[in-house]
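We store sequence, tokenised fold; for instance:
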Amino acid sequence: MYQALYRKYRPQTFDDVVGQTAVTTTLKNQLITGKLSHAYLFTGSRGTGKTTCAKILAKAVNCENPVDGNPCNCCASCRGIDAGNILDVQEIDAASNNGVDNVRAIRDDAVYPPAEVKKRVYIIDEVHMLSMSAFNALLKTIEEPPDHLMFILATTELNKVPATILSRCQRFAFRRPTAEDITGRINYVAYQEGIDITAEAAQLLGRLADGAFRDGLSLLDQCASASVGTLDVDDVYQTLGLAGQKRTSDMMEAIAAGDTPAALGLFSELYSQGKDASAMTINLLLNSEGKKMGKTQKGAVWLDPNKTSPFEFYQYWRNVADADVLKCIRMLTFLPLEEIDKMDSWEGSQLNTAKEILAFELTKLVHGEEEAVKAQESARALFSQGVAADMPSVTLSADDFKDGAIDIVSVLVKSGLVSSRNEGRRAVEQGGVAVDGDKIPDISVTIPEEKFDGDGIVVRRGKKNFRKVSK
């Protein structure tokens, strides 16, 4: 019977696990020294190896002949756990067994010693899906379990696990693998299976896997089944229903040239062929043959979502150049043409709002809504603290204070954001710099110690004083 590649090539020892060296090294050292915890919590995104490492750990603690912290995979215990024949090691899906009665059954059975192996091990996958009553029923057992008992919990949503559970477990964070890590694994599996795949196709599959080894091997499995002979990028595009790099480049050139009929014609053609619209959008914005929509002071940057955290991704698009924001919005918006034409006059607070919306929507598209919300909250917190990344830095002297308050125009001039005081005043009056309510300009300002009083510093905009900034 055929077995899916991601199941056939699931790592069987800690040494086989790719991209999680910190986790596997620590677990192996604990096994070698015998300093094992009674409860572990594995966290990370999907397809990073949480359940795999949980199964390896369950085998290792019960292995009759361990080798440097790894299970031997030859003894009766290892073979029985792999086959699922040993009832002392159970894998439980919390998504479908999330009630308090399910946990009570575990608690009642946990008091009995194992019948066939050294330790009774419960692997609870997607533990965040347990109800609050179920978590409460599990608390005492996890806090003071019998010596023969071990819990291994796994979750993709750490924020949903109660603090009372977190404090009772050793926590291991599984990092998101890079596209290169996944590409290497794809090449290894392809070699073992005799699949002839080009380097470009393997790299493409590594990027499409979106940081999950399981997804990468599933895509390889699908494409290899559909192609005859050498698997190349065209086969991948055809099998997965993606727009090819050449077609994406043609569409990008039509957009850049303002050739609306050609761009819409290409989009319609690709869409009618079943190409995924969101995937085409990501390709246009991030991977269209080196044409970069966003720029920084250091020049154009190729943004690879697999190498960029959600926060970094959000910050990049939040700080994109004004002209590039309008290009992106024109590409993504479905507003009437007269509304789109008005964008040319956007400035100040309108552009700032547009950047925030653009950054959030693109981060949600690439990393998911939950990660986008977290990134936005982190960016706002960083902004309110006045320490946002890559912001201008200004050191003020006593002369930059007027009547005991900071003159915001002086700050703008010193930061280099404006070339003169007149330009600075215009920027403030036109909303180019937000200094109202809880906002301050995103400029790092160093203030003389003697200028601080007990309450902080007053920020002045023109003749008006705004809130005091704490030290």
About this structure: The longest helix spans residues 349-367.
